[in-house]
Amino acid sequence: MTTSKTTKATTTAKKATGAAKATATKAAGTAAKTAKATAAKATATAKATAETPQGEQAKSAAYTALGLGLMGAQKLMAQGKAIIEAAPAEFKVEENLAAAKTQLHTIVKASAREAIKIDTAVTKVTETVEHAVAPIEAKLPEELRSAVTKARTTAKGLRQQFRTSVLEKVANA
């Protein structure tokens, strides 16, 4: 997966996780507010009629309503937490990011080993070609010999740039 796709997936997962948390929190908050409001009304009614036997029953009913409201709010909060925990794997950003970093590190190390193998093979081929061309080069006219020397010097410079820019960076990754 490319970096832009990984970033896009991470952003989408974070948004979805945030939306799930916000929805669960909002639902729990609404239930708690409703329970408190109902309990407050019931308590006020019970206090107003507390002097009569029916008032005592109303007071008991108010406390029962309060307890039931609080239990409902707790249940909603627990369900919201369960929804967040049961989110699909693609929404679990931290675990996916850690796995992606591990895979990337493995790929970089494998690439470094392959780059070193390629460099070793190129070195052997270069030495063989230079050894085979040296006797022929000595027999060339001066102008052509200087052109071949320039080409070889340029090739060596490019190869050295490759080694410093690619191999050393990959080896240190």
Report on this model:
With 173 residues, the chain is an all-alpha fold. It folds into two domains: 3-89; 98-172. Helix content is 90%, strand content 0%. The protein is built from four helices and no strands. Helix 1 runs antiparallel to helix 2 and helix 3 runs antiparallel to helix 4. The radius of gyration is 38 Å and the shape is rod-shaped.
Short key terms for the protein model shown above:
90% helix; rod-shaped; mainly alpha; 4 helices; 173 residues; 0% strand
Structural class by helix and strand composition: mainly alpha
**Secondary-structure element series:** HHHH
Provide the residue-averaged pLDDT: 74
Give a short account of the largest sheet. Answer: none
Poorly predicted ranges: none
Shape from CA axes?
A: rod-shaped
Number of strands: 0
Oligomerization status of the protein chains? single chain
Helix content: over 70%
> Could you say how many structural domains there are in total?
2
Q: What is the C-alpha radius of gyration, as a whole number of Å?
A: 38 Å
Supply the number of helical segments: 4
Q: How far apart lie the N and C ends?
A: 19 Å
Portion of residues in beta strands equals under 5%
